[in-house]
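Quick one: structure for this chain?
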Amino acid sequence: DISDNGMKSHDINCLVQPLKSNMVNSISILNLVFHVHVFFVPIELIALDLGYNKIGNIGAQYLVEILKTNTVLRTLKLKLCDIDDVGVIYLADALKINKVILFFIII
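Got it. Here's what it folds into:
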């Protein structure tokens, strides 16, 4: 859970490659977001809560790149992320491709 930590759209871009490869964990996310050096042990991330981060439509576009190829992420929470109708359309189109997301929350 990395909700409500001040992430912006460029921070989401840092998550694209690890999540596209299906191999990331909370430690590596902390490393990417907070730039701390930690030991990385790859595991499959099945839930990602980005709620209350101001990622906007640009961040949504980065998430689309993740959703196109990620085959293990089952839950994506984007509550109050400053994503408007345009960003929702991007994400909806990606969810047509990604058939493994079971829970998608955007309010």
